Amino acid sequence: MSNQIIVINPNSTEDCTRGIDAAMDPLRLTGGPGIECVTMLNGPPGVESQGDSDSVAIPIRDYVKTRDNEAGAFVIACFSDPGLHAAREATTKPVLGIAECAYMKAMTMGERFGVISILESSVKRHQRYVRQLGVDSRWAGDIAIGLGIVELSDEDKVIRHMIGAGERLRDDCGADVVVMGCAGMARYRDRLRNALGMPVVEPSQAAVTQAIGQIRCDG
Predict the structure, then answer these.
(1) What order do you get walking across the sheet with 113-117 strand by strand?
(2) Tens digit of pLDDT for each residue in 53-93?
(3) CATH class in words for 100-202
């Protein structure tokens, strides 16, 4: 079996994929699995609503089918985990959703996690998923920064909004771990962690780390 990890960005914004790819650098280890980040160019510019999430589910499943012989594992790099279960039905390889993995990692790092979302419309979707996963008792809150996927390249503006959201989650909501609620935020993890002085989970890294473990230990 191939040990290549294919990280799928379901939106069509290449800058988002570049940020995810850069976040993978610490995980590209000598002798470890290869990590390939791909963009679904037919997807929406950003997965910013339930409709966007639903629209990419079947294309993700079909893409997994086409790459199945080349992959040791797949990662769906969208915080809605769109098409996760359909993709798992399409392959015997591990398929990891970045939100599910990020929540699991956050709960090993603190008692209550808070989420920084891109848009207010994302918050209910995230709340629903946390409840479905059965981990809502560990959820402290979810605060949106009011910026869409295509705006996440404005680094000064984004980090300012993210720090403000993180401070509110820490000081007002009681979070002791922050989860970045969008794959497009990947480039900001270190700056956010340093500014807040608390653990920050980057979801694509969380999922790929788990994929590496599954390939090395279970493959």
Answers:
(1) 139-144, 113-117, 177-180, 200-201
(2) 999 999 999 999 999 999 999 999 999 999 999 999 999 99
(3) alpha beta
| The one-letter amino acid at 81 | D
Using CA atoms, how far residue 145 sits from 12, 23, 30, 106, 174, in Å, is: 21, 21, 37, 20, 18
Q: Where in the chain are all domains bearing CATH 3.40.50.12500?
A: 5-97+204-218, 100-202
Q: From CA 15, how far away is CA 8, in angstroms rounded?
A: 14
The CATH code for residues 5-97+204-218 is: 3.40.50.12500
Q: For residues 40 and 10, is the Cβ–Cβ distance under 8 A?
A: yes
- Average pLDDT across the chain, whole number: 95
Q: Is the pLDDT of residue 2 over 80?
A: no
Secondary structure (3-state) at 76: strand
Extended strands (E) in the chain: 5-9, 35-39, 73-76, 95-97, 113-117, 139-144, 177-180, 200-201
Judge whether 194 and 216 are in contact, CB under 8 Å: no
